[in-house]
Specification:
This protein is mainly beta. It has one helix at residues 260-269, and strands spanning 3-6, 35-36, 41-49, 56-63, 69-71, 76-81, 84-87, 100-102, 107-113, 123-132, 139-149, 190-191, 198-201, 208-209, 215-216, 222-227, 238-244, 273-276, 284-288, 291-296, 308-313. 3% of the residues lie in helices and 34% in strands. The strands form four sheets. Strands 1, 2, 5, 6, 7, 8, 10 and 11 form an eight-stranded antiparallel sheet that branches. Strands 12-13-16-17-21-20-19-18 form an eight-stranded antiparallel sheet, with helices on one face. Strands 3-4-9 form a three-stranded antiparallel sheet, with no helix packed on it. Strand 18 (273-276) and strand 19 (284-288) form a beta hairpin. The longest helix has 10 residues, at 260-269.
Length: 323
């Protein structure tokens, strides 16, 4: 039985205002999302990295205090059973003796491998680690996540779990929040004009130019916007926006020609929250775990409305970076 990690991601501010897609709700971490022995120092999980043989939890350390925080490489993963947390470590975890420093008001990304942990049971787990503040004491912080079934299997709520992994029934080259820093974009046309981001067309699509020499998308295409993530200040190169107008491309078996009823059926089964956009262009929106899917269908009496399927990851800008 195949299992994946359905991460409970923090809901943050959307990077891009999707055309015809309003997802501008103000939201932030609540006290229930933060687990720590010392207020202001805590862990969150931003995503799941499934690129290797073993999955990795992409976590973020936060220090909102005026003190300097130090933490090591040690960590544990525990399973909630009968109201008690029990370690699921299957072998000795050997870590290097490294002291990581987290300055005041700083955040840092940290990857934690699940290789030596048994995550075969469905349910609630937590990633736990410790830190110090130079006062001779050791404090703990932890973040919870869920392991649920995928495919045709269902979770405890009777709905399929959205894993954040590339779906089998899709023909995209890259998936949302995929790390592409090592990818060679040679052969992909780049759409210039972005600030704080880069946009590339999928393989085989060729850009055009208007009379002023500005880059234009072809009629049918797939494009990928690359930015830092989950915050501009975190750096990195991740796919945070995907636009599809090519009717031959599928996402979860859907295309730009799919009906809103088909869209709802897929994303209801995956446990997404469905809504309509507030804009002038009618768009169906599905949101979950900081990821938004939008479908805009053709309008018979408005030839200017282009059928489009868009996917976007939410992104913060804690330092107020201006491009």
């Amino acid at each position: 039985m195949k299992k994946v990690l359905a991460l409970v991601l923090a809901v943050v501010t959307l990077l891009f205002c999707l055309i015809g897609c309003d997802n501008s709700k103000d939201s932030a971490l609540t006290d229930e999302d933060i687990h720590t022995d010392y207020a202001g120092v805590y862990l969150t999980i931003s995503s799941l990295d499934s690129s290797g043989e073993y999955k990795k939890l992409n976590a973020v350390w936060h220090n909102e205090t005026f003190k300097e925080v130090t933490y090591g490489e040690g960590y544990n993963i525990e399973y909630l059973e009968d109201g008690e947390w029990k370690s699921v470590l299957t072998d000795e975890l050997i870590v290097t003796s490294i002291t990581n420093v987290l300055k005041s008001k700083e955040t840092k990304k940290k990857n934690y491998s699940t290789e030596l942990f048994d995550l075969s049971n469905e349910g609630t787990y937590r990633l736990i680690s410790d830190f110090s503040l130079g006062d001779g004491k050791t404090y703990n912080t932890w973040v919870t996540f869920e392991v649920k079934n995928t495919g045709n299997e269902t979770n405890s709520n009777g709905k399929n779990a959205f894993s954040g992994e590339m779906p089998k029934n899709t023909s995209l080259e890259f998936w949302i929040t995929e790390d592409v820093k090592d990818y060679d974009w040679t052969g992909h046309d780049e759409i210039y004009g972005w600030m704080g981001a880069r946009e590339f067309l999928g393989s085989g699509y060729k850009k055009t130019q208007d009379e002023d020499g500005s880059d234009q998308h072809p009629e049918h295409y797939v494009s990928y916007v690359i930015t830092a993530w989950p915050d501009y200040a975190d750096g990195g190169e991740f796919v945070t926006d995907i636009t599809v107008t090519d009717p031959a491309v599928t996402v979860y078996g859907l295309t730009v020609a799919s009906t809103y009823e088909d869209f709802d059926a897929v994303f209801e089964q995956l446990g997404f929250e469905l809504s309509w956009s507030d804009g002038a262009i009618v768009t169906r929106v599905a949101t979950r775990d900081g990821i938004t899917f939008c479908l805009t269908r053709a309008v018979e009496d408005n030839p200017n409305v282009v059928p489009v399927f868009r996917i976007a990851a939410e992104l913060t800008n804690r330092d107020g970076i201006v491009f």
